[in-house]
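Justification of computing resources. Each target in the renewal requires a structure prediction run like the one illustrated here; the chain below, 196 residues long, is used simply to show the kind of job we budget for.
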Amino acid sequence: MTSRYKLALLATILAGAIIGGCSSGAGVFNPQAGAGTTPIAGATVYKQIELLSRPAVKEAFELFEDHNKTNHAEPYADPVLQAQIKSFTLMFRSKQNAETLQAILYPNVMKADLSQDVTTASYLGYETGGATGSKWGGRALDDDVIDISLGAIFGNTLSALGLIPDDKKEAPCLALDNVSYDKSNTKTFPYIQAPL
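Resulting structure tokens:
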């Protein structure tokens, strides 16, 4: 069993424990719980308070005043974020760039194709057909998700991956966060180095 597999299994167990809490009742996810909805009798209702699957997506594209609204939105029914990805990108990139980013980054959920026979996760790998590393998707510990996101928004990542032609409208000074990560992960939990 690889350390990445162990980490993925542990993350899944922890997520279940955090979402499920200690309740023994059946769970019902309702992003608008408490807003005039009627839960199923005897079921535990989970109230969504944050939606941040992909770091930098909401921060880059969305108006700050809309963050709370989209935090409570169902990820596949969030026209605010979907529209703002495209409208923001159209201010400085081509229409094809804007539509491709919208297709890749919406909905704001982490996708993974469990049918793939790979041992390495790859941020945006599922959405790009494996162009960022593997088709499995998800997110590996050493994926620099901020640089990948900024590169797609402001750099030439989409054209370098062969997804679209280069629109020659890159802003290189915004395409990286310039924060290094030495990738010195460990083989034991929590798998990452201690904070500096």
